[in-house]
Amino acid sequence: GFLNNCGHAFDTMEYLTDSEIDLDHVKLHNRVYDHFEDDPTISLQAMWNGINLSVTGLVNSRFSVFEIDFYFEFHKVSIKNAGDNFEFYRLRNEKECSGPLSLQPELSQDHCIKDYMSHVIDHARQLLDDDEIDDNFSRSVGLNLKMVKYLNN
Question: Distance from first CA to last CA of the chain, Å, rounded?
């Protein structure tokens, strides 16, 4: 659903780019209540920091997809398989104004998630023990509030 999977994707993007997502100028393509009563599957497009943002909600699928692609002038970075795989691509010839991308196997990583969620649990324990740790929890809550507001409009 939008609040669950898309919330994780938006949170990851905000964390990696250190920039908040604006949901005020979003073009909604579909909203289908297929699996969760209060969390529809949504496809949308928006502009965010001058970047095209496209979210594809897979309607009536029985599997969860969590993939993010970042496109730069000469590069593409793909986070796949719920963050277990990272692929890095580069324009074959940067002197051309367009052309195919080449996978950079020396930069790409597979099986990045060794002990799923263990780092999250360890970080939560550290937060409970130490009041001085900087965390993006409040920012994530704010993002979820924006997403709920968007759903209710």
Answer: 17
